[in-house]
Amino acid sequence: MKQTLLSLSKLSKQFDDRKVLDSLDLEILDGEFITLLGPSGCGKTTLLRMMAGFEHPDEGSITLGSQDLTHTPPEARPLNTVFQNYALFPHMSVFDNVAYGLKMEKRPKPEIKQRVEEALAMVQLEDFAKRKPHQLSGGQQQRVAIARAVVKRPKMLLLDEPLSALDYKLRRTMQVELKRLQRELGITFVFVTHDQEEALSMSDRIVVLKDGLIQQLGTPREVYERPANLFTARFVGETNFFPGRVDALNDDGTIIVDVFGLKRRFRKPDFSVVKGQPLHVLLRPEDIRVLAPGDDDGVAGKVVERNYKGSTLDSVIHLTDGTEVLASEFFDEDDPTFDYRLGEPVRVSWVDGWEWLLPEEPAVVAEEETVDG
Amino acid sequence: MGNTLQQPFRTAVLVLVWGWLLFLVFTPNLLVVGASVMTRDPSTFISLPMNLDAYRQLLNPLYLDVFLHSLYMAAMTTLICLLIGYPFAWSLSKVARKNRLLLIFLLIVPFWTNSLVRTYALKLILATNGLLNNALMAMGIIDEPMQMLYTEGAVIIGLVYLLLPFMILPLYTVFEDLREDFLRASHDLGAGRWSTFIHVIVPLTLPGVLAGVMLVLLPAMGLFFVPDVLGGSRNLLVGNVIKNQFLDARNWPFGAAASIMLTLAMAFLMFAHRLSKRRIGEDGV
Questions:
Q1: How far is B242 from A167, CA to CA, in rounded Å?
Q2: What is the tens place of the pLDDT at every residue in A32-54?
Q3: How many of the other CB atoms lie within 10 Å of CB of B107?
Q4: C-alpha angle B259/B265/B271, rounded to 5°?
Q5: Pair B74, B220: CB distance under 8 Å
């Protein structure tokens, strides 16, 4: 069992009239890769800055092990940050940038030299020690920023959207590299991003944030497959929301739900349900099966959009009642019914057991209506 | 297609710029260089033969004294401008944006009044029966008026007053460009306020410091009307010497040589400024 390294307790922060963090509790475990995920303005960057010491909470406390860090200035915290735009000192060479933290600790010169060289070797930049930051590419600057932050052997590395300035391909490479570094160093990584794909592929645990509140805390799989609420379901990945109504409660732990007139048997959800209650049936695009129009199963609709994605074929299907369905199917070249033309009638079904049920959320529904209107 | 349309315009602009530089910058300077190596002539101002007498005269202890004293007053002016301007520009960059524009506006307003007029206004303040002496006496801080006018101090006050905005504006731009992230990164890596100031803030604002020094130091050696109005006869600037050579002493070669010295000093400062910018990678590779 991993131990708690940093614990955030009842953190609140207000900027002018806006509550950025609202009594937030979070325990960060030793050695984990934890991601703070949310749209802009959700409080994730403020939270990271509080850990680093650049912002101070109005209320609440931050403790590292048994040490209270709440009012400790950033220079006295055993944590280091990789900044969004790297913030490499432009007047210093790569070597001096990485050595900066050790010089501030007044380490002896030979030790500084050795540790800086080790850190640069770790990010494969040994040959660039004499360059100035402006002579490096974005990816190289990124790696210098990482070397500069880990050379002090912090207990925890805070990464503020470190990959957002890189192009797609480089971002993928750096994701792999960051994971490798984290495994090799065994340092706890706290990673801030608004990119759900990045969060899913890199993290041990994800904290989904919205309006300064934790929406869900769990493994990538839990967050993707069992979202705690409609916000998480919408924000992480693409989702079809089908309106359902509880038709019957069975004794064997299943319920019958009416979806588009189909009576489907689902596992009973964690929240309490009563007969006649409306609920959301969530299905990821890859859970959807597109069937031939003559099939007995499913609901009738027609294909309005097809996107060839290489390994998958993504389609948008309008059901007869106007509901839009996203479907993402893997190629099966042996299946003659696979390729549909635009406008072609089809039937839409899904794999039973892959659905996820959520209760109605009046506030969110109302909000969505105003957005649509 | 756009290219052919733009061609005449492009040519016109280039001719204008190069013509301007050739006739109004290059030629006059060449004339000054030419004059400096000629012989003084009471009736035609300059005449042949060519020689370096004017430059030799620059080394005359009398003029060397004037030059060093002028340099001293200019250096003091620059230092005071820097000491006031640096924190001023720093705090200015921290003020909320709409107040900041107002403050910069207030900084520029005095330019709308002729600087000679403003120097005379300063004279009224510093005079023996001036505003400052009267105010100090009314407050009981001093019993009798202090001699402030016609001192070295008065010249320096006048120069600081006229030149301070030229120090603040370039410093303000470097402070505005100074990203908060650099300071955060420095603290994050374990540096306190003082270390961050020395290792990060000073080097990153150095181009602004040098630009400000350039804009203050050279004019502070040349603004001859300030000593004329405030300084009396003992506090001359190099600018006074040059003016006197051309208008009173009629020694054009010497005046020209003195102004070339000033130009060379300026060139040296600009070179240092470029070096400092290159250090932080702002001036290309």
A1: 60
A2: 999 999 998 888 999 999 999 99
A3: 16
A4: 140
A5: yes
A319's enclosing H/E stretch is strand A312-319
Angle at A168 between CA A162 and CA A171, to 5 degrees: 35
Output the six-digit token pair for A27.
């325990």
Q: A85 and B181: CB-CB below 8 Å?
A: yes
The stretches of chain B forming alpha helices (DSSP H) are: 2-20, 27-36, 53-58, 61-94, 97-108, 115-126, 131-138, 152-177, 180-188, 193-196, 202-222, 225-226, 238-247, 252-279
Q: Which residue does chain B place closest to A85, by CA atoms?
A: B181
**Spacing of C-alpha B213 from chain mean position:** 7
- Shortest alpha-carbon distance between residue A83 and chain B (Å): 7
ipTM of the prediction: 0.82
**A105 contacts on B by Cβ (under 8 Å):** 190
Q: Which residue has the higher pLDDT, B3 or B205?
A: B205
Cβ–Cβ of B185/A135 closer than 8 Å?
no
* HSE-up (13 A, CA, CB side) for residue A120: 21
What is the residue-wise DSSP string for B191-245? --HHHHIIIIIHHHHHHHHHHHHHHHHHHHHH-THHIIIII-SS---HHHHHHHH
Angle at CA of residue B201, ends B200 and B206, nearest 5°: 105
Chain B environment of A81 (Cβ under 8 Å): 184-185, 188
In chain B, what are the domains?
A: 58-284 (1.10.3720.10)
Which residues does chain B have within 8 Å of residue A87's beta carbon, measured at their own beta carbons? 179, 181-182, 184-185
* A33-37 vs A205-210, strand pairing mode: parallel
At B212-249, the pLDDT tens digits run 998 999 889 888 888 888 887 778 888 888 888 888 88
CB atoms under 10 Å from CB of A242, counted, come to 21
CB neighbours of A175 closer than 8 A, spacing ≥ 6? Answer: A163, A198, A201, A202
Instruction: From chain B, pick out residues whose CB is under 8 angstroms from the CB of A132.
Output: 281
Check: CB of residue A365 under 8 Å from CB of residue A371.
Answer: no
> Which residue type is seen at A212?
G
The residue whose two tokens read 């380490």 is A107
CA angle at A330 for the pair A328 and A334, rounded to the nearest 5°? 135
